[in-house]
Amino acid sequence: MDGKNDLVTLVEKNSDMIKYVREHKEEFDSMDFADESVFQTLAELSDDITLLKTYLENARKLEDLRISEIYFEDNFRFSDIQCDVFREKETEKIIYITKYYTDGIIESQKEYWVNDTIYCHHNFLPININAEGATFVLRVNDSMMIRHIYIKDFGFDSKKLPIEEELQSYEIPKTYILK
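Below the sequence we write its predicted structure tokens.
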């Protein structure tokens, strides 16, 4: 009404950022800029720019571990989940496994038989993740190349992430084994 167009003003004020996003369009295709977690992360960084180094290092580590999806969660609720294990019938070698890693506490039970197929045995280990104080929960199904992580923000303790060899192994994580 006053001869101003808010959209034009926004574009003019952020022309460098718009240029950058356009130049890196393919990299941003999977990112939803309207996602609340993106705004939350940017707000945290604007409140404390010293977090930027940690956030970037942790993002790089997730990329190095080939994490396919990142989910932002304020409250982790992981109960009644299971580590699925498929073993070859003849050798009992694990040929497929779904497993979880966290900096929280994993409580497991004994392994249960589910069923048999012509080629393999299917068992599962029920696990609960006590996520109080946890900063990440990582789900890995390497036979299907699926790696998802649930984080509160990028400020998690990356020293507690598993290494690539652990993620690729077809072994039940030692934290699941009852003593």
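The chain has six helices and nine strands.
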